Amino acid sequence: MSVRRYVQLDVFADRPGAGNPLAVVLDADGLDDAAMQAIARWTRLPETTFVFPSPSPTADYGLRIFSPRREVPFAGHPSVGTAHVLLDAGMVATRDGLLVQAGAAGELPLRVDGEGARRTVAVRTPRARVVDVADPGDARLQAALQSLPLGPLPPVLMDGGRRWWLAELRDEATLRAAEPDWAAIAKLAEATGSMGLCVFARSADPVYHLAVRAWVGAPAPFEDAASGAANATLAAWLAERDALPGDDGFYRISQGREVGHDAIIELRVDADGEVWSGGRARAIVSGTIDW
Predict the structure, then answer these.
(1) Under a CB-based contact definition with an 8 Å cutoff, are residues 150 and 137 in contact?
(2) What's the rounded mean pLDDT across residues 158-174?
(3) Residues 203, 193: contact at Cβ < 8 Å?
(4) b vs e for 49-81, b when ≥16 Cβ sit within 10 Å of the residue's Cβ?
(5) Average model confidence (pLDDT) for the chain?
(6) How far apart are alpha carbons 214 and 277 in whole angstroms?
(7) Nearest Cα to 203, choosing from 247, 253, 278?
(8) What is the rounded average pLDDT of the residues 257-264?
(9) Are 231 and 267 in contact (CB under 8 A)?
(10) CB–CB of 287/281 below 8 Å?
């Protein structure tokens, strides 16, 4: 089979162009690693996902995630977006409001709320852990943070499948106006085995509680339009410090305006300390891919 169903969509958005783009190949059975990597390189999107039959009776489908450069064990927006596509295609049905995705990070549940354009999907992310709480004057961070007025929480390196440095900034205006030092962020990422630096600030906006920017330093520097995984590690850090915004562990973040997007991601830390990252999605391109 060379012709397979194919969808491109915006994740963490309810309108075209606002979220994080994703490509989904719905019928991936028969594609080998080299073919999947080649397709992901060809789409030139942040990630491309490939859907397989469920590998176990407890999962609804199998999933593999590729960036243009390599396979990714877990990422938030590909997991959330793929679930939206599968629900739209009628390929899966929820059980008690849940789906289960099987991938390199194991079997992960996704909670589905609502229907149609108002439907939200949230994935329970892999448990994140604190790797290193740093002093603001830490030599590893000085160059990346030198022009950024910091907030109350100390910088921290978190590992949630991908490692991110997190730093709270003084206020939202500071965050929106910040100019990342890409050379310093790349050096920080390479030296610490991390994705780079994710900065956040508290907001008084009526829609969202935090503004977030995620600066990827390696393998190629860029600003992520909307990162479910980075925000999940941030939620775990805020829960660790009893510093969650919002009510009952639920809050929203704004991300991507500085790179022409306007994503809203919903985070929830449940009573067991598990982090759920999700939001809406909007299909933009639906058709087939002939590979």
Answers:
(1) no
(2) 96
(3) no
(4) bbbbebeeeebbbbbbbbbbeeebebbbbbbbb
(5) 96
(6) 15
(7) 253
(8) 97
(9) yes
(10) no
Contact assessment for residue 99 and residue 110, using Cβ atoms and an 8 Å cutoff: yes
Length of the chain: 291
How far apart are the C-alpha atoms of 3 and 226, rounded to whole Å?
30
Instruction: Please answer whether residues 143 and 181 qualify as being in contact, where contact means their C-beta atoms are separated by less than 8 angstroms.
Output: yes
**How far from the centroid of its chain's Cα atoms is residue 282's Cα?**
16
Residues 35-51: pLDDT tens digits?
Answer: 999 999 999 999 999 99
CA distances (Å), origin 96, targets 57, 216, 225: 16, 37, 32
pLDDT score, position 136: 82
Of 39, 15, 13, the closest CA to residue 26 belongs to 39
143: left (phi over 0), alpha (psi -120 to 50) or beta: alpha
Rg of the chain (C-alpha set): 18
DSSP-derived secondary structure letter, 29: T
Tokens standing for 35? 């073919």
Q: What is the pLDDT of residues 50-104, one digit of tens each?
A: 999 999 999 999 999 999 999 999 999 999 999 999 999 999 999 999 999 999 9
d(CA 165, CA 192): 9
95, amino acid identity: R
